[in-house]
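Aim 2 progress update. The chain analyzed this quarter is reproduced below.
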Amino acid sequence: MSKLQNWSNTLVLLIATLGVGLVVSGCDSGGTSPDSNNLGDVSGAITGQVIDNASSTPIEGAKVVVAVGSLDAEGESFSATTGAEGRFAITDLPATTADDGSNTGEDPSAKYGIRVETPDGSNYRDAYRGQVELAYGNNETGAVELGANITFPLQKNNGSLSGQLGVTGSDAPLRNTELRASQTINTGFTAEGDATSGILTVTTTTTTDEQGSFTFENLVVGENVDLYARFDNNTESTVATQKSIPDEGSAAPVENSSVSAPALTATLDPAPGTDFGTTEPEWTLTFNRPVAGVTTDDVAEALSIDESSISTKAVDESGNVELDVSATTTESGAIESVSWSVAEPLSDGIEFQVGYGSLFDAGVIVGAQYGVGLSEVNDTRVRRLPALLDYSIGANTNAPATPAIGEDGNVQVSNVPETIDYDVPGVSPNLTINVDNSGAPVKEYQVFARTVEDTEDRGQAPQFELKETISAENVEFGETSGSVTFSGNPLRTNVEGTYGPIEWKIRAVSINNVEGDFSETQEIADNDSLDLSGAQYADFDSDGDDELKVTFSEPVSDISAGDAGTDYFIIEDGSNDPTALGEVAEVNNSISPATATVVVELGDDGSNTANDELTVREAGSDNFVTDLAGNPIKVESDANTTSL
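Predicted structure tokens:
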């Protein structure tokens, strides 16, 4: 019997390139294999025919080459040329047991590399390389022979295809673009003995010229072709499908076709919003592929720098900051990137803007290869770019000095009330700052603060937020001043029990936007003692017995229902038999209006209440009432005592 074996990747590549089928048939008469030590008595023969794949007519003058082992080994080779009937015969081939044609002493099989070289001047493709393996077989006389009969069907490759392509959405031709023509060839056969068949893909490439024109030569005739444009970003676009290649001559041209080319984009480095860190900034605009339609003169004319805060500069005759512009180009002169820089240093610590005029308008910058216009810069659509690009200069990167608040510091605080109560509507301290440029020139002082109103999630602590910026840009080692306002009852919220101080701190920011360290945190808190508003006896729970109700000016803490009333209050009436107090019945805090009431049960029948006087125990007692900030009751001038 006979087998056709592929030569791994090499064969697969050549099949795709040459597009030819191979048919192998052999003889197998049964019987037993000979002694592998008598290989000298064994020989093989390969015969067959080379034909036209489309018409099955024989091809004369084709050369069939057979090599022992493989075509790549340096072994013995044999050849034969087809006659008028396209037939060939190669005999007396030695048996082998290894790919290199050597004898290993094992049961032998004959392996040969084989190919077909087409006649000079013909329109046929050379046949692909393959490998034939011939196994032992015995005929009726007992003589050993190895043989195979192979048919090689060859295809003509004198077909062609031409055309001209443009870019979708543009009048430009599709220039200098690789095109791929793909043909699918069915290599099925009907032959005596074994036969192989398969689907082969033949690929041919070419490149469009400056006008978008192209021509494919050496296409397989009688087979349709699919045409693709291949771009530099490893993508493809379909140009035409199932374009027929006639048996003779050229195919119909590809006309009036356009292709969607990948976008032309650019990257501006550094990106807008950057602090250069130098007074001599430089920019580079790099394109994802070379561009045409713009020159360095165009760029220089379009660019401008806002002068509003620039004191050191060189200007051109138009009054703009002078820029030096250069470009990197391809051999053909297309621009790959363009760079510009200031001719003279700019001022330190400034913010400035670059205008680009019409440079990024649609159609100004055009791709040299595919003819499409610039669509994006730094991942932003060109039409959405701002008219001016923001930058800043920050050559001095030192941090400014840390502010110190208080008598010995450079920040003085005034206009803070001596006493602040729970329900204060607002506080607006004034800050007078002796500007400290010891670390770096200071541009501003920033006041950060947090109050209980600064967070909606009461499960988290309020975060420091920027409340005020005090400018120091025009002050050099002198005083600057400002104020910060905390309004809307900053010590409390409308949620019962949510209460706390105002905490604030300050830091300096240099002219180059370098932020210094924060000062120590300052605090504005409720420091006013709790006020007693009054007290009275009455039947507050409608049970027929009187209770004592004590009223305070704001919510209270450190007292709860069930506590003994005598722990917090004292009743006196000038006799030795004052009204007795029982347990605390209720504690009611109100946020708006700010108040609190404490109801205490009486320890007797309440019949001896005449001339009673109530005193709220002050700090220092074992138990006493405080406000939510922990301030005890006022005691000056008996403010903690009232008549009942």
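The two ends are 127 Å apart (CA to CA). The first strand starts at residue 2 and ends at 5. These observations will guide the mutagenesis experiments scheduled for the next reporting period.
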